[in-house]
Amino acid sequence: MNKNYFEIIRAGINSTFQDLGRNHLYHIGIPFSGAMDNRNYLLANKLTGNNHNHPVIEFAYQGPHLKYHGSPINIAITGDVSFEIKKGDNLIDGKCYQSFILENNDELDIISTNKSVYGYLAISATFDLKFQWSSCSTNTKANIGSNNGKKLSNNQKINIKEINQNFMNTKLNYVNTKIENIRVIKGTNFNYFSEEGKEIFFKNEFKVSKLSDRMGMRLEGKKIENIVETNIRSEGLIKGVIQVTADGFPIIMLSDHGTIGGYPKIGVVISADYDKLVQLTPGSKVKFQEVDLNSAETLFKLYDLETQSLISQI
Amino acid sequence: MIKNISNLGDAALYCDFGKEVNKETNTQVIKYFKTIKKKNILGVNNITPSYNKLIISFDLKEINFNKLKRIIDNIEITKSDNIQNKKFEIPVCCEKEFSLDIKRLEEILNLKKEKIYENFFEKEFFCYMTGFIAGMPFLGDLEKNLRAKRLDTPRVKVPKGAIGLTEQFANIYTFESPGGWNIIGNTPLNIFDNSKEKEPNLINPGDLVIFKRITKEKYQNYHE
């Protein structure tokens, strides 16, 4: 049946199928998931002629090395990524935000992301995937989503169900910029922290810890002193919430976060900054900057307009 | 009733039902949850009920805080929105290999383990909320003499089916996960079934649960 497929020579560190994620399930403990960097996810799909909720492969740091078997397809990679395409003895240096053609026996080696965490591989075809709650998005901690809820593994096959026959030659001039000031709205427990603690939060620099993944991003820095209670009654969380744990360090909830948490919330990252936040590599230095709700809404509108304008340039 | 609505970031409403954590407050939270869910408000992504809070997150492209707050402010809970409670019996085996923290609890609570079990089994618990990990029910209230703090250092892996206690609550680990609750036993019953898209959770907010003690033999033969 499946005559078109990818053979995985090397799976990469954390390669998973993702789409826009799943809604309406927080109350039973199932997080949103979905592509971490929404803008780069959308651009990858547009570059390969797909609709906006088409499954892609998300990879972190080192991506997969794939060998393609089948009829020609288009691929595109987005993010800040180094990759190569091997066509027989020919080695093509890959460029992000540009479509390439893969033919039978071509190899795609996604070597690494540069100064960023996540990259996206979209193809002008449909992966043969099992969906769960109308989404392929894979949550490896809860084993939910396509590929039995697991990340891709070596020597596995990725079957393709259907190929889009429209070949395209697409290209976009876009460079990812790195964020240094993360804009936040004060959290519901902001007053749990000492005056000094609040000042540390907004004036000091924090370093992204190695203990960061799709669930959360831990930060290291000067301790933020809690003067009320280090635990609150467990309550719902959303992505972008910054909790301060008993050790005094912030942890930011990301797309696979637990749906309920019991640490005080010092702030929430604004929606406009989320895509750039998730791309911060361990060791990056960041500062938090306060904005109010009105500004956050305006900033999101601008961010969304920019994304739409990039999409329309393809 | 909702005492106060504020914003949690730019894409969520934070509805506060007051400081008290008890069945009455939580029943109000669940009623609101069910009513709002039924309304299918455009742009609402998720509604998360907890003990005394309801968090409604939304798509900023579709709606914003002020517009959604106006809708929620005007929602009325009618009598017909009463909760239908389901009742479940959860079999639990307390053999040594499953009751990982019973010694710790004996010391903290100053109770013999048989007394701990006597105070835990055959009592009715109320499900306040589910979540943290998929399908995990937060059940209350434990008898006053069974209330202990969570472990100082959480376990990296709590086994699937583990029954944990912390403060006034009991929970069930629906799959292997990190966790810091005091583990007293294990259930062979599958509490979360992710192959079921419709109702993956066995226990939902508002449901009632009674724990029944079973022997190791019964535990091992449970699925036969």
Task: Give the topology, please.
The complex is a heterodimer of chains A (314) and B (224).
Chain A: E1 5-10, E2 16-18, H1 38-47, E3 56-60, E4 65-69, E5 73-78, E6 81-87, E7 90-93, E8 99-102, E9 107-113, E10 118-123, E11 125-127, E12 157-163, E13 181-186, H2 195-203, E14 206-208, E15 216-220, E16 235-236, E17 241-244, E18 250-253, E19 260-261, E20 265-269, H3 274-277, E21 285-290, H4 293-312
Parallel strand pairs in A: 13-21
Antiparallel strand pairs in A: 1-4, 1-12, 2-3, 3-10, 4-9, 5-8, 5-10, 6-7, 6-9, 11-12, 13-20, 14-15, 14-21, 15-18, 16-19, 17-18, 17-20
Chain B: E1 4-7, E2 12-16, H1 23-39, E3 44-49, E4 53-58, H2 65-73, E5 87-93, H3 102-109, H4 113-120, E6 124-130, E7 137-140, E8 155-158, E9 162-166, E10 169-172, E11 177-179, E12 182-186, E13 208-214, H5 216-220
Parallel strand pairs in B: 5-13
Antiparallel strand pairs in B: 1-2, 2-4, 3-4, 6-7, 6-13, 7-10, 8-11, 9-10, 9-12
Q: Can you characterise this structure?
A:
The complex is a heterodimer of chains A (314) and B (224). Chain A contains four helices and 21 strands. Chain A is an alpha+beta fold. Chain A folds into two domains: 5-163, no CATH class; 181-312, Cyclophilin (Beta Barrel), CATH 2.40.100. Chain B has two domains: 4-81, 2-Layer Sandwich (Gyrase A, domain 2); 87-220, Cyclophilin (Beta Barrel). In chain B, 21% of the residues lie in helices and 30% in strands. Chain B has helices at residues 23-39, 65-73, 102-109, 113-120, 216-220, and strands at 4-7, 12-16, 44-49, 53-58, 87-93, 124-130, 137-140, 155-158, 162-166, 169-172, 177-179, 182-186, 208-214. The mean pLDDT of chain B is 93. Classes of the chains: A alpha+beta (314), B alpha+beta (224). Chain A binds chain B through residues 23-30, 32, 132-133, 141-144, 149, 185, 187-188, 233-238, 240-241, 258-261, 265, 268-271, 293, 296-297, 300, 304, and chain B through 6-12, 14, 21, 33, 37, 45-55, 57, 60-61, 64-65, 129-136, 138, 174-175, 177, 192, 194, 197, 200-201, 204-205.
